[in-house]
Specification:
118 residues; 57% strand
Length: 118
């Protein structure tokens, strides 16, 4: 059974930084694109950043220049470094990965809360 386990959320003041981590475990053949999404109360889930297995990245306009996504293919892990955090970044952050067992399927982590408040 494939699992994505996230860590690193918490409470931070505006202007502060947090680093989220997510690691895939279980039996699978390979991982393609990995990404971070977020969902604020009363809002739809939105893509924050994504990274392909080759390292190509894509960011939501709202986080460009502040967030950096990276991955460690040897550890089946993806990271999100979040700097200059704003109150509007407050949300539950979810890790997402396209993983191949027999076929490709998307998998989601359980979510980690990020709260930006003074």
């Amino acid at each position: 059974q494939v699992q994505l386990v996230e860590s690193g959320g918490g409470l931070v003041q505006p202007g502060g930084s947090l680093r989220l981590s997510c690691a895939a475990s279980g039996r699978f053949v390979s991982i393609n694109t990995m990404a971070w999404y977020r969902q604020a109360p009363g809002k739809q889930r939105e893509m924050v950043a994504s990274i392909t297995s080759g390292g190509s990245t894509n960011y939501a306009d709202s986080v460009k220049g502040r967030f950096t996504i990276s991955r460690d293919n040897a550890k089946n892990a993806v990271y999100l470094q979040m700097n200059s955090l704003k109150p509007e970044d407050t949300a539950v952050y979810y890790c997402n990965a396209n993983i191949r067992i027999s076929i490709w399927n998307p998998y989601w982590g359980q979510g980690t809360q990020v709260t930006v408040s003074s």
